[in-house]
Amino acid sequence: MALSAPANMPLCGGDQIPVRLEKREVPVHSPKRVLFLDLVLSLFRLNGLLIAEGDAMTKQLGLTHARWKVIGAIALSSAGLTVPGIARVLGQSRQAVQRITDVMVEDGLLLYTENPKHKRSALVTLSEDGKETYNMLREVQDPWAIENTEDIPTEELETTLRLVRRLIKKFN
Question: Is the pTM of this model over 0.85?
Answer without folding.
Answer: no
